[in-house]
Amino acid sequence: MQVYVPSFLTFLIIIIILGFLASSLKIVKEYERAVIFRLGRLLGAKGPGIFFRIPVVDVFRVVDLRVVSFDVPKQRIITKDNVTVDVDAVVYYRVFDPIKAVVAVENYIYATNLLSQTTLRDVIGQVELDDLLSKREELGKRLTEIIDAATDPWGIKVTQVAIKDVSLPVEMQRAIAKQAEAERERRSRIIMAEGEFQAAEKMAEAAKMYERNPMGMRLRELQTLTEIAREKNMIVVTTTGSSQDLATMLGIVKEEAKKQG
Predict the structure, then answer these.
(1) How confident is the model over 182-234, as pLDDT tens digits?
(2) Cα(122)–Cα(259) distance, integer angstroms
(3) What is the residue-wise DSSP string for the chain?
(4) CA gap 237, 229 in Å, rounded
(5) How far apart are CA 68 and CA 95, in angstroms?
(6) Are 61 and 34 in contact, with CB atoms under 8 Å apart?
(7) Residues of the chain with pLDDT > 90: what percent?
């Protein structure tokens, strides 16, 4: 008995020492930090790697420094021009100061997510529907700045806020479709009017030219009649003002043929 008791005590002491070391030595990963409190007082942040803590005396909380993505649930919001829309977004943020994230706010993840929802509702409620549909990138930057400024005292850095989807009521979708169709019709009519205006200008110039050169007008008339006869396979009989006019026109035609030859 005298030999057995010391051996048992030695084994027990070894077990206690190993248990103490196991509970004292902790490891945090590269993307983590451990915020340590000793007897309730902040001691600091440790990591990455291995660190030592006194069991029972020291309490620590591990904070993840990686970027967190939060999918904001779809929010029903009334825009500035009294249109009800359903908007959802995604927020990307990370912890840049683990001590503030633990000390300044009870639950930084829940607080940031809740703040993102309320800020989304506030900002969208201050813009009109047209701006919401056409300026998503600008609104995302505005949301990022507002949320980042509010979460900075918590040690949170908001890197991006992106508006994912904007759902409109069926009636509003029909109204927008009609508006787009009316805009396309307006542009089409403007293009047609501009074409008619240009054609009228050219016709006016041609009329002035024919007015200065009556023979040219007569030649154009004969050319038109010839084209009609060729297309319809018919013979067109026309009269001329006088034989002198006809001779003049034939002379002009011959002269033009010589120039072209």
Answers:
(1) 777 788 788 888 888 887 777 777 777 766 766 666 666 666 766 666 666 55
(2) 80
(3) -TTHHHHHHHHHHHHHHHHHHHHHEEEE-TTEEEEEEETTEEEEEE-SEEEE--TTTEEEEEEE-S-EEEEEEEEEEE-TTS-EEEEEEEEEEEES-HHHHHHT-S-HHHHHHHHHHHHHHHHHTTS-HHHHHH-HHHHHHHHHHHHHHHHGGGTEEEEEEEEEEEE--HHHHHHHHHHHHHHHHHHHHHHHHHHHHHHHHHHHHHHHHHHH-HHHHHHHHHHHHHHHHHHHT-------S-HHHHHHHHHHHHHHHHHH-
(4) 10
(5) 9
(6) yes
(7) 34
pLDDT average, residue stretch 12-16: 79
Work out the mean pLDDT of the chain and round it to a whole number: 80
Written as six digits, the tokens of 255 are 């002269």
Tokens of 173: 């979708």
| Phi, psi (degrees; rounded to nearest 5) at 96 | -105, -15
Query: Distance between CA 219 and CA 246 in Å, rounded?
Result: 10
| Under 8 Å between Cβ of 71 and 32 | no
**Contact between residue 87 and residue 165 where contact means Cβ atoms under 8 Å apart:** yes
Q: How far apart are CA 204 and CA 216, in angstroms?
A: 15
pLDDT in tens, 222-259: 667 666 666 665 555 555 554 455 555 555 555 555 65
User: What pLDDT, on the 0 to 100 scale, is given for residue 111?
Assistant: 94
User: Do 62 and 34 meet the contact criterion of CB atoms below 8 Å apart?
Assistant: yes
Could you tell me which residues are beta bridge partners of residue 85? 77
Angstrom distance (rounded) from CA 76 to CA 168: 10
